[in-house]
Please model this.
Amino acid sequence: MSLFAQNKALAALLENSPSPAEQEGLSPESVRSALELGSMVLLGNPRHPGLKPCLIGQPAAVKVNANIGTSPLRNSLDKELDKLAVALEAGADTVMDLSVAGDLRVCREKMLAACSLPLGTVPLYAVAQRYIDAGKDPAGFSPEELFEEIADQAEQGVDFMTVHCGLTQRGAAWASEEGARVLGIVSRGGSILARWMRAHNKENPLLTDYGRLLDIARAHNVTLSLGDGLRPGAGADAGDPAQWEEVVTLGRLARQGLRAGVQCMVEGPGHVPLNMVRTQITGIKAACGGAPLYVLGPLVSDVCPGYDHIAGAIGGAVAVEAGADFLCYLTPAEHLTLPDRDDVRAGVMASRIAAQAGERALGRERALKREKAMSEARKKLDWKGMQESALDPIAVCAKRAEHAGEEVCAMCGEFCAVKMLRE
Ligand code: SF4
Model:
């Protein structure tokens, strides 16, 4: 049976006006066929109030996600809602609530109400948090509790969920064995599940009961973001057997999901040296049947704390050119602390720059048009035009403020090369 015949919620979303295809400048037929093939997904849970559905998968525009959420050391819902507003203003396309402190249900409810963009979560966090808050082992949960949490969040309106279904006992053992990796398992969800499998000596319930997960997801058109619990957390670990063991399983699960009427994306690395980014992206996409690839960075160097948004944007630009569809931002706070509102803004902008650079290299029409408009505005010393073409018009305005009335800028003043040649 076709994807649309099984997934009625998705079929209805596609009829939305203005249509998601029109908004991307793509034909409805091409979007429909990409969705059927699984190379594109349409994020949107009909239960999310006021939602604008979002297409992920090239040639739709490359999208940027901003992660927000409370932590036990910085637990303020108001601050997270403020960061959500900053992410929207800065041009993020989706937001993930990764909260692990406070009342997570209330937190999600408020974020869903405040966010017209698709909202993603990692349901495993809510399950583990209950155990940690009670002073118990986070691996103490039962599979039933996990599936109930997933169903509850789907009914609440969450649009996409990271589920680490591809993590196996074998993969976790490979990543953790003595001398195998510099940094072991760095994914929060991956480490909780690895601990669970070790404690219970059982296979990952998200893998063994994948059919149950598919039934929940299909009912609300929740897109599964098949998480990379074994993503490399150090450049030296990129491309090791544990990483690829999981990728192969994720590819199998993405195909199974599509056959069952469920949209799936695949999550990718992580820390990857620049010379390996292209092969990682093309390899993962091939192994996963072309499913949209959602990458964290990738970070091309491990020695940039304070500037990881830049290290991630360099990898992100190469990844987009190689076929990545969706960039998860990194902020200057990565590896150091919970991001504040300025970090969120810097992170979104860095990923948007990566997306623009990658799409320009791919010759995407909208990216080329924007580049051309900026060059033409510069030629005319048209500051308003420059502001309109800039990815961050607010930054242009702020930097220009002191000399806003001048024809030239304060870099060269009367030595302005553009003006000199024009005259
Ligand atoms: S003053 Fe210099 S930097 Fe500024 S617009 Fe003219 S040439 Fe460019």
